[in-house]
Give the backbone structure.
Amino acid sequence: MAPHLAVFDSGVGGLSIVQSLDRQLGNYQLSYLFDNALFPYGELGESTLVARVLNLVVPFCQTQRPDLLVIACNTASTVVLKPLRQMLSIPVVGVVPAIKPACEISQSKIIGLLATPATIGRSYTKQLIERFSNHCTVLKIGSTELVEIAEQKLSAQTPDLEHLRSIVSAWLKAKVQPDVVVLGCTHFPLLRNELGAIFGKNTRLVDSGQAVAKRVATLLDIKQAAHQQNCLRVGYYTKKNAHTNSLWASFNALGFNELNLLLENDLCVRSPDGLLVSDAETLVH
């Protein structure tokens, strides 16, 4: 029987992880949940973020009964993995910026970390840089705007290359540019072609998708990708709006059968005003 995976993100960035899972696993059932009601997560306080994820993802997994959960959000992964693993009996895999492999392959020893401001500011990210930088200089750009542009792209809006160029202009104007750029948000690989055109062929773009997929395969003891078959894929979102109406083509292209609003009656989902912040603080600390 094909494994059943749950993938969670605040938006559609987790679809870049789904693409990596497809290459690594092949055949699997998928429940994809994105919390667009509170998108983007990078603007939430840590306690609010943790409480929201726990109050949403735990009952979702109890209802869907997946074999494994992927938190396909760098911002959430830096703070929610420990409490989620305490509350769920299934494996929970997170994503972190690919600092280590970037430093290993860099020739100039100058790498760029492109992430959300929240991810760049987390102590976890700073610890990754301290641990794996290997005498590299790590330049950082934090952008929430890139997240929104990636969301728009999946709604069939063409990204403005000059606008993207302005976001990373500090690196483009530098005397020595990074030769490796870490895409430290799962939304950013969705803009790989555009960013690749801006940085040029001498800059490598790396992300965590392949590492996450390999970790999932190891935990599920999958030796090689199965032949692609039609397994059920259902997407869920937490707020219906014009954006969600325009996303179906992108989900359908990845083999999704349905894209549905997750109603509070479907799960015991607390509203943002009813978050158990104190409980979340206890679990984190």
The first helix runs from residue 14 to 25. DSSP finds 14 helices and ten strands in the chain.
